[in-house]
Amino acid sequence: MAANDSTRSVTGTTPRIAVYARVSTLGQSTDSQLLDLRRYVSERQWHIFKEYCDNGISGTKDSRPALDELMDAARKRKFDVVLVWRFDRFARSTKHLILALEEFRNLGIDFVSYQENIDTSSPLGSAIFTIISAVAQLERDIIAERVKSGLRRAKENGKKLGRPRGTALDVEKIRGLRKKGWSLKQIAKALNTSKSSVARLLKAVP
Predict the structure, then answer these.
(1) CB of 24 within 8 A of CB of 58?
(2) What is the domain range of residue 193?
(3) Are residues 197 and 128 in the same domain?
(4) CATH number of domain containing 100
(5) 133, 162, 180 — which closes off a domain?
(6) Any idea what the Cα angle at residue 92 is, between residues 87 and 93, rounded to 5°?
(7) Fewer CB within 10 A of the terminal residue: the chain, N end or C end?
(8) Whole-angstrom Cα distance, residue 134 to residue 140?
(9) CB 188: neighbour CB atoms within 10 A?
(10) Phi/psi at 115 (nearest 5 deg)?
(11) H or E segment and range at residue 112
(12) Annotated active-site positions, please?
């Protein structure tokens, strides 16, 4: 399966393609992904700017060396199109995908997913991107509403909201520890409170 051929360089010349491939374990290889993507580029007589490959790196990781390098090059406008084998080879979550696609759009860079047959420069690809964005926003709104609803129910049930207050500090204990030569930091750690709270208490109660 391949995406359509509507992607064109913003300059009107042959598009410069950034190819991205990833496998989760070192025992796997990106070769099969790259084979499909190279053929896809060749059939369209495009030009591969660079191939970025993350080997043995989970897609859930926030930082991936090759992907980080690709994003840095994108921000420097070094290529016109990002080509991936499949969405989940590129993005760790729907949110990550949407944020990346929005950044590419702002940079004037198109995004093509070979397996999903998606090209954001085409009318269909653009429409699907809009739908994905809307679904992601709906998901965020639902989560936010659940949180608000939970807080309302808790408040109606008489539950106190906000950070719970710590138990009253034992002034005499603090004084005793201080006389033993303990530092404010040591006292605060022992009583599970802040250094500033200990200092304020000692200052307020001579």
Answers:
(1) yes
(2) 171-204
(3) no
(4) 3.40.50.1390
(5) 133
(6) 85
(7) C
(8) 10
(9) 19
(10) -70, -40
(11) strand 110-113
(12) 24
Based on its alpha-carbon atoms, the radius of gyration of the chain, rounded to whole angstroms, reads 27
DSSP string of 76-89, one letter each residue = TT--SEEEES-HHH
Average pLDDT of the chain, as a whole number: 81
Phi, psi for 22 (deg, rounded to 5):
-150, 145
Largest CA distance in the chain: 83
Domain count, the chain: 2
3-state DSSP call for residue 158?
Answer: coil
pLDDT of 52 above 80: yes
Paired tokens of 41: 């580029």
Which long-range contacts (C-beta less than 8 Å, at least 24 apart) are formed by 64-70?
64/22, 66/20, 66/22, 67/20, 67/22, 70/18, 70/20
DSSP state of 192: T
18 contacts: CB under 8 Å, gap ≥ 6 = 49, 50, 52, 70, 73, 74, 78, 79, 81, 82, 83
Which of 30, 90, 84 minimizes the C-alpha distance to 61?
90
Tens digits of residue pLDDT in 168-181: 567 778 888 888 88
Nearest to 64, CA basis, from 20, 121, 2, 13: 20
For residue 32, is it within any domain?
yes
The model's pTM is 0.59
* Each residue's pLDDT tens digit, 13-29: 889 999 999 998 888 89
Q: Are residues 125 and 51 in the same domain?
A: yes
